[in-house]
Amino acid sequence: MSIGNRNRRVTVQQPSTERDPLGQSIDDPVAVCTVWASVEHLRGRQFYAAQQSQSEVTTEIGVRYLKGITTNIRPHMRVVAGDDTYEIVAVIPKRPREILLLCKAVG
Question: Are the CB atoms for 18 and 25 separated by under 8 Å?
Fold first, then answer.
């Protein structure tokens, strides 16, 4: 992946570990970093489940290597690219200093 392909500014977020005074977790995600990335939509589909229309978009986001990006956190880390939000499903090392984030669209 050449640097010229990384033409979108994205923010990687992780779930907050903070708690409110009652001990409940706060749902606001925390920004981990903002980087340049390539965003490529691999496929999309629409299906009906429970009598409602559902859609799913699979996206590949290429970024330089970022320490700490993982799918071991529940709920998963996510990527915000403009108005779009993606949940990170898998992290794949591509080259020594690059990783691919396989994501699905949220919302």
Answer: yes
